[in-house]
Design a protein that fits this description.
two-stranded antiparallel sheet; 504 residues; 54% helix; 6-stranded mixed sheet; 10 strands; disordered N terminus; Rossmann fold; alpha/beta; 20 helices; 3 domains
């Protein structure tokens, strides 16, 4: 049973990471449905595991360990037993290391496949845990956390899986030797807590589904050996698809439907035509789907339109023109008997295109298109490959400077590193967000980065220090925003001296 004992009885846990009631209700309903369905489907398999455990060694079938739950309350986490049941094991370390002699042969297999964790579906069903959330830490270890970390991490139900548990899925293999607990406290626990706090601040249902997807994928032998980028983990394929495609598809359908209705009403007042609701809906569906597919192919659905650059505005016009052409071709060359005049389809497409642009780009389109043509000179040139680390005003300033006519000949922006999982895979100021600070080393190697632009000046001190250390470890040149103009002028002089012919 769940106890009411808290980690700090004198000071209740407080946090600012409070989700709305409807969000918590949806998450809890999702947990109940998945847990109940999982227990029902896995019941025969559970029976088989229980028989194997009985045959292997005497002792209880399940392990129930004391863990820190939501709001600091203790609960008993449920797992299949994987260790020998001896009195000596009761006082053994709370963290398991590589080649632990306490683990049975069957226990090794249960741990490697994570099957030993499946009984926690019962913890989820009765409300002690969630399908996705910070992994519940040993109660005694959790008492050593700082008050701020404790309040934030324990503000939500702990989960069967989490971003930290996926990244550290081979945690036992990382710990060895007699002093492995020190290594755990110094090297693993701080990063797991950082990941847990990021999850608590930004979690949502789509993100939870993504984490469940990555958890299942990580169990496959081939993918188990592949390191998952932290940015991909928090902003996975499912949440990205919905945010970048489904949401815009619904908006585009509404815009196209209104456009078709307006054109039909206007045309009916001047001539014998009745567009009707079914035809308006059909045109809206055709237009929205065609526009969504073209935008996905061009990468326009992933643009953060409040931070778009001129190239993005030009792309939406090109996409609209392609959609109008395709719909016109379909109606008058594919369909056997077109019912609508060409002007009706043409004006509907044009009005819908204006609606698409207004919905995304608002009033910036005219000024940005003007700036686009003046900034295209030298756009195809490539120079020093730059990675911008950090978002906010510093990132905007770095992007603006590096995209000026002279500077863009000497520098090529590879992308942006940002901690916010909701920005992963999106396009800001003309540059893609391609990872978090944990991915800096991999991104540098993958894209052959030669220069890091450090723009994380608005981050908390502890985060700024960690990000700076990650940049230093790459052994690349690092430019602070405060030193940006001086560094750029120096590089431009070097570039010009190499390209300017000498006179003799």
């Amino acid at each position: 049973m769940t106890t009411t004992y808290q980690l700090d009885a004198t000071e209740p846990l407080k946090t600012n990471a409070i989700q709305p009631l409807w969000h918590r209700a949806i998450k809890r309903a999702f947990d109940i449905i998945i847990a109940a369905l999982g227990l029902f489907l896995l019941a025969p398999f559970f029976l088989l595991v229980i028989i194997l455990l009985k045959r292997e060694a005497p002792g209880p079938l399940f392990y129930r360990g004391k863990r820190a739950g939501r709001n600091g309350r203790a609960f008993g986490i449920l797992k299949f037993r994987t260790m020998l049941d001896t009195p000596q094991n009761a006082n053994a370390p709370r963290v398991t290391a590589k080649d632990d002699e306490r683990i049975t042969p069957l226990g090794h297999w249960l741990r490697d496949t994570k099957i030993n964790e499946l009984p926690q579906l019962w913890n989820v069903l009765i409300g002690e845990m969630s399908m996705v959330g910070p992994r519940p830490e040993d109660f005694d270890i959790a008492t050593e956390w700082s008050q701020n970390a404790r309040a934030e991490i324990l503000s939500v139900r702990p989960g069967i899986t989490s971003p930290a548990s996926i990244i550290y899925r081979d945690e036992e293999n990382l710990l060895s030797g007699q002093d492995f607990m020190t290594a755990y406290y110094q090297n693993i626990l701080p990063d797991k807590m950082r990941l847990d706090r990021i999850y608590v601040r930004h979690h949502n249902l789509l993100g939870d589904i993504d984490i469940l997807f990555w958890t299942a994928a990580a169990l496959l032998p081939r993918l188990a050996r592949t390191k998952i980028l932290e940015g991909d983990l928090f902003g996975g394929p499912i949440s990205r698809f919905v945010r970048f495609n489904i949401s815009w598809l619904m908006i585009d359908f509404l815009v196209a439907f209104i456009s078709a209705g307006l054109v039909g009403a206007i045309w009916r007042s001047t001539g014998p035509i009745n567009l009707g609701l079914p035809r308006a809906l059909l045109i809206a569906v055709e237009t929205a789907f065609a526009f969504g597919i073209i935008n996905a192919l061009l990468g326009l659905n992933s643009v953060a339109w409040d931070r778009a650059v001129p190239e993005d505005g030009f792309g939406i016009i090109v996409s609209s023109a392609i959609v109008i052409t395709l719909i016109g071709f379909y109606h008058y060359f594919i369909l056997p008997a077109p019912e609508l005049p060409v002007p009706v389809l043409l004006f509907t497409g044009i009005l819908a295109a204006l609606g698409f642009i207004s919905a995304r780009y608002r009033l910036r389109i005219l000024t940005d298109l003007s700036a686009f043509w003046t900034s295209r000179r030298g756009a195809l040139s490539s120079g020093e490959r730059v990675l911008i680390v950090g978002m906010g005003e510093g990132s905007e300033f770095a992007n603006w400077i590096l995209r000026r006519d002279r500077f863009r000949r000497a520098f090529t922006i590879i992308g942006i590193i940002d901690e916010d999982p909701l920005t992963q895979g999106m396009r800001y100021d003309g540059a893609w967000v391609i990872g978090t600070s944990a991915d800096i080393a991999q991104v540098v190697k993958k894209y052959d980065v030669g220069l890091i632009m450090l723009a994380a000046s608005n981050a908390p001190i502890e985060d700024r220090q960690r990000i700076t250390e990650a940049c230093i470890e790459t052994n690349l040149r690092i430019v602070l925003i405060s030193d940006l103009m001086r560094a750029l002028q120096r590089w431009l002089k070097q570039t010009e001296s190499m390209t300017t012919p000498r006179s003799y």
